[in-house]
Design goal:
Blueprint: E1 3-10, H1 16-25, E2 45-49, E3 53-60, H2 63-75, H3 79-86, E4 91-94, H4 96-106, H5 118-133, H6 138-157, H7 160-163, H8 167-179, E5 186-190, H9 194-205, E6 210-214, H10 218-227, E7 231-233, H11 238-241, E8 247-250, H12 261-270, E9 276-280, E10 297-301, H13 313-340, H14 344-367, H15 374-401, H16 408-418, E11 426-427, E12 430-431, H17 436-445
Parallel strand pairs: 5-6, 5-8, 6-7, 8-9, 9-10
Antiparallel strand pairs: 1-3, 1-4, 2-3, 11-12
């Protein structure tokens, strides 16, 4: 069996300015999945890049050289200075620890705001991308699908989701803490994606009456504005709108700041220095950090939201402990399944040898019974198939049960010797071989009870 690894950095291990550098390196032509054909030590690869994390989940035979290859891929787009600087922020999880970490991320136990629901959708989107690049195979396909079901189980069996808040809600809570009553405040939402939509929903719940929505895609801005009874404005009119709003919440996918120090400073004179608050929940950041130096301008980025929401903290922690128990249980089940993959070649070889013998003996017998009807022949075929299936049932069940034991190699060696599977011996002119394409098909079909 190979190894599973997870290499990455998140909001706990690296500040936002470091994460945004790496996030930029994972977009467009620099996407890590494109590098897989050139990697000698990595088997399957999955990449997740969000506001709070950049992570690579992979399979390999030997961990250290695979990690070196993947770090080189991530850091190659940042220059030598960036490479030496960023290396300290990476973390690495191996095997069952990597599985548990993925399950925690999918279940939103590793998020900045525990229980926020967006992360699972982001993982699913990243998985679709990996399937398009064809970088995931038997192991990561099953692992990622398992992460979806684990996240669903955590949400259905705990109150993590009902007690938690999203980053968008944390942004609205920050605005409420600053201003108190938000009903008379004028809000500008820049961006019309999921984060902006959630922010608009929470703002409406707080009684906000005047909202403006700006987005590069005009149709999307109009749609969001109509949904929340807001006004849509052209993206090019953002700076003019700053004259009259109190709070700006920005969450675009821009690769560079859309609001600079100079832009804001010139508008503050027209505002007669009335306070203006920016809540930047984008990564990379939408608002230049120097904006915070302007008088009466207050800028909060995504890292500033870490300690904002403390509601139901103790109860959330209890629910998180229950969720961790579920994750540990499911991770153990997965690693048990993973260990069964070692016995797959032996089971495949045993089935194929039995099938070759069955077909040869069946053909020999039927050749001496030319008077049999087609119905009689089919009955004999079904009989031989049933006999072989029943004879193989106990040996295969035995191999599966021993697949997660320390003695499994000894058991496999014994089975290969007992059934003469070790030398690829010819059986009536047919050579027993486990071809790669067919082996992958058997591997996909191979099911091991997780109960």
């Amino acid at each position: 069996m190979g190894r599973i690894g997870l290499l990455g950095m998140n909001h706990k291990s690296a500040p936002v300015e470091i994460r945004e550098q790496l996030a930029l390196a994972c977009r467009g032509e620099a996407h890590p999945l494109q590098a897989l054909p050139r990697l000698e030590c990595v088997g399957e690869l999955f990449a997740l890049s969000t506001c709070n994390r950049v992570e690579l989940l992979f399979t390999c035979e030997t961990l250290d050289p695979a990690v070196r290859e993947l770090k080189a891929v991530l850091l190659s787009h940042l220059g030598h200075a960036g490479a030496s600087h960023l290396d300290q922020y990476f973390y690495l999880h191996q095997d069952i620890d990597a599985v548990e970490h993925l399950f925690r991320v999918a279940s939103s136990l590793d998020s900045m705001v525990v229980g926020e629901p967006q992360i699972l959708g982001q993982i699913k989107a990243a998985y679709r991308e990996a399937t398009e690049y064809r970088t995931v195979g038997v192991i990561l396909n099953r692992l990622l699908h398992k992460s979806f079901s684990v996240a669903k189980r955590v949400r259905s069996e705990t109150r993590i989701g009902s007690l938690a808040v999203s980053i968008s809600y944390a942004a609205v809570e920050l605005a409420r803490k600053i201003f108190g009553d938000l009903r008379e405040k004028r809000i500008l939402l820049i961006g019309a994606g999921e984060m902006a939509e959630l922010a608009a929903e929470h703002l409406r719940a707080q009684g906000v009456r005047r909202m403006f929505v700006a987005n590069r895609t005009v149709e999307r801005a109009i749609e969001l504005a109509r949904q929340f009874k807001a006004d849509s404005i052209p993206f090019s009119h953002i700076l003019d709108t700053l004259k009259s709003v109190d709070i700006v919440i920005s969450s675009t996918g821009s690769t560079e700041p859309i609001l600079t120090h100079g832009d804001i400073k010139s508008r503050m004179r027209e505002r007669r220095n009335r306070p203006l608050f920016f809540i930047d929940i984008a990564v990379p950041r939408d608002v230049e950090s120097r904006v915070n130096e302007i008088d009466n301008v207050y800028l909060y980025d995504i890292d500033d939201l870490k300690g904002i929401v403390e509601l139901n903290k103790e109860e959330r922690q209890r629910e998180a402990e229950r969720a961790h128990h579920i994750i540990a249980e499911e991770a153990l089940k997965f690693t048990r399944w993973l260990s069964t993959l070692d016995v797959v070649p032996t089971i495949v070889a045993l089935r194929r040898k039995a099938e070759i013998i069955r077909q040869n003996e069946l053909n020999k017998t039927l050749s001496h019974l030319p008077h049999f009807s087609e119905k009689d022949r089919q009955a004999i075929v079904l009989l031989t198939e049933s006999i072989v299936k029943k004879l193989l049932h106990n040996p295969i069940v035995f191999l599966k049960k021993k697949s997660d034991r320390d003695s499994k190699q000894q058991v496999m060696d014994f089975a290969q010797q007992l059934f003469n599977l070790t030398d690829g011996a010819e059986l009536n002119g047919s050579t027993l071989e486990v071809e790669e394409a067919s082996y992958q098909g058997d591997l996909e079909a191979f099911k091991f009870s997780e109960k």
